[in-house]
């Protein structure tokens, strides 16, 4: 997979390193000469250019990329890069970094963004995830379909503890993706039994989140009231 990353700062270089370790081709693009540190990510391609300029993106051969990541520290730049990548070059997957949470509402399909990653929101979500049991935590927002990646740790008093996945009447527009149990990552087959303390990851429509939280957190006996 070929990936272009706009922004060769600490965030962009870190992403590039991870992708290269996983066997992908990576191009880092930045207009600041001081950001071009080839020795820090020697396996990546580097381009000194303004990612908001069509001529620069032509030089980067963006049409050959499977993914573009707009990872600069400027939300305006990330939006422009995302829009150009999607509309001018037809890049299948565009991921954009949100620096200011107040701008998060802009990072959607209209601006060419498939996945928006808000660092402040993600850090907050991870803190919540670490201390919350029985509360739904939103980890990531997907632009298409108004869906989110959400997590809930199943509380001991939940009526679903001891229930098989296939027996649960999940809300519409929700999908159980993974069960994390201790050090294990489980594929949620219909025969898998839910246990108290399981971390459950879902892709769910935002409109269904409250219904999903109610279902998972319901206490034994409450459903009989």
Main β-sheet: number of strands, strand sense, barrel status?
Answer: 11 strands, mixed
User: Residue ranges: pLDDT <50 for 5 or more in a row?
Assistant: 123-131
| Mean pLDDT metric | 86
Structural class: alpha/beta
CATH topology heading of the largest domain: Rossmann fold
Percentage of residues in DSSP E strands: 25-35%
Q: Helix count?
A: 5
Radius of gyration: 20 Å
Helix content range: 10-25%
**What's the CATH architecture of the largest domain?**
3-Layer(aba) Sandwich
Order of the strands making up the biggest sheet = 3-2-1-4-5-6-7-8-11-9-10
Order of helices and strands: EHEEHEHEEHEEEEEH
- Per CATH, the class of the largest domain reads Alpha Beta
Oligomer description: single chain
Task: Give descriptors for this structure.
NAD, RCK_C_sf, Rossmann fold, 11 strands, potassium transport, Alpha-Beta Plaits, potassium, eleven-stranded mixed beta sheet, ion transport, alpha/beta
């Amino acid at each position: 997979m070929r990936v272009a990353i706009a922004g060769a700062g600490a965030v962009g270089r870190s992403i590039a390193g991870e992708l290269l370790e996983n066997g992908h081709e990576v191009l880092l693009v930045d207009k600041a000469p001081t950001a071009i540190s080839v020795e820090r990510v020697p396996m990546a391609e580097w381009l000194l250019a303004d990612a908001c300029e069509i001529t620069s993106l032509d030089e980067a051969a963006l049409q050959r990329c499977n993914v573009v990541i707009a990872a600069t520290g400027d939300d305006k730049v990330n939006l422009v890069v995302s829009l150009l990548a999607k509309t001018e070059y037809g890049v299948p997957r565009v991921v954009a970094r949100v620096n200011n949470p107040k701008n998060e509402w802009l990072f959607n399909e209209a601006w060419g963004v498939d996945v928006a990653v808000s660092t402040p929101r993600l850090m907050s979500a991870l803190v919540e995830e670490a201390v919350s049991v029985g509360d739904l935590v939103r980890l990531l927002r997907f632009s298409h379909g108004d869906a989110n990646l959400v997590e809930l740790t199943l509380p001991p008093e939940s009526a679903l503890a001891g229930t098989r996945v296939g027996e649960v009447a999940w809300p519409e527009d929700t999908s159980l993706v993974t069960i994390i149990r201790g050090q294990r990552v489980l594929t949620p087959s219909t025969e898998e039994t839910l246990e108290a303390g399981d971390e459950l990851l879902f892709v769910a429509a935002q409109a269904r989140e409250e219904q999903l939280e109610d279902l998972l957190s319901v206490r034994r006996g409450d459903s009989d009231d």
